[in-house]
Amino acid sequence: MATKYTLPPLPYGYDALEPVISAQIMTIHHTKHHQTYINTLNNALASQAVATDKNDIVSQIHLQNTINFSAGGHINHTLFWENLVPASSPSAQTHVASKLMAAISARWGSLEKFQEKFNAVLLGLKGSGWGWLVQDTESGNLEIVTTKDQDIVPAGKKPLLGIDMWEHAYYLQYLNDKGSYAKKIWNVINWKKVEERFVGGSDSVFGTLAGLRSNM
């Protein structure tokens, strides 16, 4: 029987990130968009299990694109919700991530310069996708990368911080001014969580999603 995935509850209320992200956006983004990725994933996994039992390799191949897209949507959004927090929370203060801040300063000169570079990368995305702060698992170096649509971060890169740049993440509030969204979202970053990802292993980053990720 195929594993069934469920929508993870947000660690805060739908209105908790206002005024940076509206309650309307958070509600739709979580209960509609994220839920749809999970529904599609579960249906595709069930169909894949049937195809596997029948040794139907053609159907398995056809289903893989849907599984990769939907699983990526589930993984990316789960990481995204976790690395956000109300601006009033102590976890939104940079001093709770001293090791990461030191590494960011060593790599880019300062947090401000890093944010400028990151935002430039976000605004350079063509179409839908994500911007990520990642750590190379071999060298330990910090990098800024992007992923297209719902692709997950490449193998060998540990995701520390992800920003959703799909239009549904900001358009109802910011319209075509995604630059303001990219600037303001820094006020609701959960630096405590990003620090935990930085000092922990890849499995601790993905948690219960680790098995799903390894099958993509």
UniProtKB/TrEMBL annotation:
GO terms for cellular component: mitochondrial matrix. Mn(2+) binds at residues 29, 77, 164, 168. GO terms for molecular function: manganese ion binding; superoxide dismutase activity. Its EC number is 1.15.1.1. It is found in: Mitochondrion matrix. PROSITE patterns: SOD_MN. The keyword Metal-binding applies. The lineage of its organism: Eukaryota, Fungi, Dikarya, Ascomycota, Pezizomycotina. Residues 4-84 form the Manganese/iron superoxide dismutase N-terminal domain. It comes from the Eukaryota. Its cofactor is Mn(2+). PANTHER family: SUPEROXIDE DISMUTASE, SUPEROXIDE DISMUTASE 2. Keywords: Manganese, Metal-binding, Mitochondrion, Oxidoreductase, Transit peptide. It holds the Pfam family Sod_Fe_C. This is Superoxide dismutase. It catalyses: 2 superoxide + 2 H(+) = H2O2 + O2. Destroys radicals which are normally produced within the cells and which are toxic to biological systems. Destroys superoxide anion radicals which are normally produced within the cells and which are toxic to biological systems. The keyword Translocase does not apply. Homotetramer. Residues 98-197 form the Manganese/iron superoxide dismutase C-terminal domain. Belongs to the iron/manganese superoxide dismutase family.
